[in-house]
Amino acid sequence: MTSDSGDLDDNSVYSPTNNNPTGINGHKCSPKNDEHLNELLREKHLLTEHNIEMRYVLSLTGSGKTTKLLTAPVKCQLVLDQLAKNPTALQGPSTIKEGILYNTGVNLTWDYIHSEMCLHDPDGFAIREPNVKRVKWKPLVAVGPHNEWSGHGHDKLSKIRFPIWGMRDKWSRQWLGLWVIPNNCLKEAIAYLYLSLIKKYGGTFMPEQSTTDCGSETTMIFGLATALCQIFSDLPIEQFLAHQFLKSVHNITIERGWLHFLVDQLNSHVIKKNKDTLLSSSMYGGENCLKPVDVDIIDSLMEVIGDETLQFVTPEYAEHAKEIFDGLNVELTFHNIWSVFQAMCNLM
Q1: Dist. CA 84–CA 124, nearest whole Å
Q2: Of 268, 252, 245, nearest to 174 (Cα)?
Q3: How many CA atoms lie within 13 A of 179 on its CB side?
Q4: Is there a contact between 143 and 286 (Cβ–Cβ < 8 Å)?
């Protein structure tokens, strides 16, 4: 009988289902008098004589039997010790089981660990619930214009050294101000822009509340808004926050605004009627929520903070550039800005 692999004698059994027709194993057999193999066989014989199972010697005891043999205090303490290494409660029963086995070599059942975790750490299951981190949306609410100013930075243009900071009115969704500044992470710069907005709206009024994320650059806004509210507002500061820190995912007013921040176009856009919104679907109505402040105090604060952090160049360079621009006698637009820049560069 012949095959592609060679000739086989007539006594051999050849079948298409035989995975090893040649009889050659994948591993070399041990020598006849291999001392290591003989030693292993002697150990196994001794263990068998003393009725000791190999799985106990190799720490392969089943979790069910181990859980039954251990006393309740010992089992419970093993679980508690592992839970103490999980302060954030982000590890479930399976991970705790693996941790106990890795640290102590004790293999407890998943059911026992689960029951102990339900007893000693019930809140952990709620924390690990798959939908617990999903942001729950709710309608935005505002009494009227300037009830709340929402501010945030925009870093998409930071790579070309043009970071942006902006503030938006929650009720009308209008941009109150957008500024390109050298660094939108400086608290002095952000505080100066906030005060400039107050001055822009008559200099004698401030919003009821402002909201930002909780970055270090917004701490001075918090202090200024709180202090001005304590001095000039009749709202109880213990019950009403003049400035509120929000996570970016909750600061919806400003985050949605970054999708389209062409100020003139967006602020002139007619908002579509929406029966489901609690905010205005028009630019009219609502209660004007601006609160009176002393303009002299605003001017003093702006003078103390200074606008140095808002300048890209020195005052001398800025004055020289302005003189050249004025000499061109052109109106600057988005369409000719690059041509104007090139013309100024040739004269600088």
Answers
A1: 12
A2: 268
A3: 24
A4: yes
The one-letter code for the residue type at 180 is: V
Residues 264-286 pLDDT 10s: 555 555 566 666 666 665 555 67
pLDDT at position 58 over 50:
no
3-state helix, strand, coil in the chain (%, to 5): 45, 10, 45
Distance CA 237, CA 228 (A): 11
Q: Quick one: pLDDT at residue 1?
A: 41
The neighbour count for residue 335, using CB atoms within 10 Å, is 7
Q: How far apart are CA 65 and CA 109, in angstroms?
A: 9
Burial-class residue 70 by CB neighbours within 10 Å (0-12, 13-18, 19+): middle
Token couple for 39: 């030693």
CA-nearest of 229, 253, 85, 292 to 169 is 253
Taking the whole predicted model, whether its pTM rises above 0.70 is answered as no
Which DSSP category does 309 fall into? G
The residue among 79, 87, 145, 144 whose CA lies nearest residue 118 is 79
Radius of gyration of the chain (CA): 37
**Sign for the pseudo-dihedral over CA of 77, 78, 84, 86:** negative
Residue among 243, 48, 32, 219 nearest 149 (CA): 243
Helix, strand, or coil here: 64? helix
Residue that has been written with the tokens 């194993």 in this structure: 25
> E strand or H helix at 243, and its extent?
strand 243-245
Distance CA 20, CA 328 (A): 91
Q: Which two tokens stand for residue 266?
A: 């967006």
For residue 167, which of 182, 179, 155 has the smallest C-alpha distance? 179
Dihedral sign computed on CA atoms, order 318, 319, 324, 326 = positive
Average pLDDT value for residue range 193-216: 84
Tokens at 77, concatenated: 């303490």
